[in-house]
Amino acid sequence: MIGRLAFRFQPFHPQRRIHVLQEPSTYLRLISARAYSRSPTLCSSSNSEKDDGYPYTHDGHQHGDRQYDENDLDWARSWIAEGDVKKKLAKFPPSIGVITFSRSSGPGGQNVNKVNSKATLRVPLEKLEPHIPRIFFGALKRKGSKYLTDGGDMVISSDSCRSQSTNTKDCWEKLYRAVIRSAQVPGKTSLEKKERVKKLIEKSEAVTRDWKYKLAKKKANRRGGPVGEW
After folding, report:
1. Beta strands in the chain (DSSP E)
2. pTM of the model
3. I need a surface site. Which of 95, 112, 174, 188 has the fewest CB within 10 A?
4. What's the alpha-carbon Rg for the chain, to the nearest Å?
5. Domain count for the chain
6. Which DSSP state fits 55?
7. Would 41 be classed as within a structural domain?
8. Sheet harboring 153-158: ordered strands across?
9. Which residues of the chain fall below pLDDT 70?
10. d(CA 66, CA 46)
11. Tell me, what is one Gene Ontology molecular-function annotation carried by this entry (predicted)?
């Protein structure tokens, strides 16, 4: 009978959340970690990262170590919503970049690799900064881009056509797309949603305070002392 019971005995395995403890854990620490891991939570702000790689809060206004106000976000939203190609390209003064032309690669024929039709645009980030929304510039500096070199320049090439002017225009359009795709811009939050989130946070904090008070009361009863105010 004893051997059968010993065979069926299952050793205690702490929950997986306990792996966050960095220092040597005693039995009391493990019990405390298990207790806090079971604390009720209705709403919490996450420090995780979205697909674009930027930390966010519940209001969506904090990206990385920068705080952007509504004016910055409205400016970025206007860039994303812009549909006119001419207006898109007008956002970049030609003086911020340098265009060079070279021969296109690939098979020859019909002057494809016989004339300098390939356009290459080089724009330093410091010259690009005053003309784009701050949220996009910060994202380009942190995440980078496939067009961003180690020297801090955006280098974009196009040889899709046999016309220098068309390839030049394509380079500027690629730059525009690279800028607006560098970061996710949160949409406008309605007042109703803000109030709902605020109430959820307040309710979550109240539940957490109540749980902590009950835990402190239980510990105080064991020691025989009073419970402090919360």
Report:
1. 62-63, 66-67, 98-102, 118-124, 153-158
2. 0.51
3. 95
4. 29
5. 1
6. B
7. no
8. 98-102, 118-124, 153-158
9. 1-67, 106-114, 225-230
10. 16
11. peptidyl-tRNA hydrolase activity
The amino acid occupying position 190 is S
* Domain enclosing residue 148, as ranges: 62-180
Q: DSSP characters for 162-185? A: S-HHHHHHHHHHHHHHHHHTSSPP
206 is a domain residue: no
CB atoms within 10 A of CB 163: 12
In a domain, 53, yes or no: no
Tokens standing for 184? 């996710």
- For residue 31, what pLDDT is reported? 42
pLDDT in the model for residue 227: 61
Structure tokens at 194: 């803000």
Has residue 131 been placed in a domain? yes
Q: What CATH number should be reported for the domain holding residue 106?
A: 3.30.160.20
Alpha-carbon distance of 151 to 77, in angstroms, equals 29
Report which residue type is found at 24: P
Residue 119 β-bridge partners: 101, 158
